[in-house]
């Protein structure tokens, strides 16, 4: 019995060390140019959590004024975009009207306010209907851009 108890503790400890080690490795491997660009874009933000996304870009997860953000940077330090999850009711009125008129059969799954290097500010609305997901990107004026 004591052997099993010790084995369980060992497995839990090993798992925790692996998870913590992987997070630290992503931060330690974040290129200097990426960290520099982050500090220039977000001065005063000193403690982002870094991850590498499926495209090989660096994601910084951080809080600013109590709100959670994710900013993406290329491996060379080029800022790509910053996203913030928001509630559906925080969408511009015109976007809410389009959703009610055109996408009323869809369920809103997630809403993000996005500042993108080439598209500018837009709202990414993830919708689902009959098990199929789709994203629709709106400008603040209600224009669909994807």
**Assembly classification:** single chain
Range of strand content: 35-45%
Parts with pLDDT < 50 across at least 5 consecutive residues: 8-25
CATH topology of the largest domain: Nuclear Transport Factor 2, Chain: A
Q: State mean pLDDT (0 to 100 scale).
A: 87
Number of helices: 3
What shape does the CA trace take?
elongated
The sequence of SSEs as H and E is HHEEEEHEEE
Main sheet makeup:
7 strands, antiparallel
Question: What gap, in angstroms, lies between the N and C termini?
Answer: 60 Å
CATH architecture descriptor of the largest domain? Roll
Query: Given this structure, which CATH class of the largest domain is correct?
Result: Alpha Beta
Evaluate the radius of gyration: 20 Å
**Strand order, largest beta sheet:** 1-2-3-4-5-6-7
Work out the number of β strands.
Answer: 7
Q: What structural category arises from helix and sheet content?
A: alpha+beta
Number of domains: 2
User: Level of helix content?
Assistant: 25-40%
């Amino acid at each position: 019995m004591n052997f099993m108890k010790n084995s369980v503790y060992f497995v839990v400890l090993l798992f925790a060390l692996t998870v913590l080690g992987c997070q630290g490795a992503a931060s330690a491997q974040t290129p200097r140019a990426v960290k520099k660009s982050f500090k220039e874009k977000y001065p005063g933000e000193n403690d982002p959590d870094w991850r590498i996304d499926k495209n090989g870009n660096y994601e910084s997860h951080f809080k600013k004024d109590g709100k959670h953000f994710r900013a993406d940077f290329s491996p060379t330090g080029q800022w790509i975009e910053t996203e913030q999850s928001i509630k559906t009711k925080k969408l511009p009125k015109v976007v809410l009207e389009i959703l009610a008129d055109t996408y009323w059969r869809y369920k809103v799954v997630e809403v993000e306010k996005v500042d993108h290097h080439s598209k500018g500010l837009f709202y990414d609305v993830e919708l689902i209907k009959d098990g199929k997901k789709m994203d629709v990107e709106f400008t603040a004026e209600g224009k669909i851009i994807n």
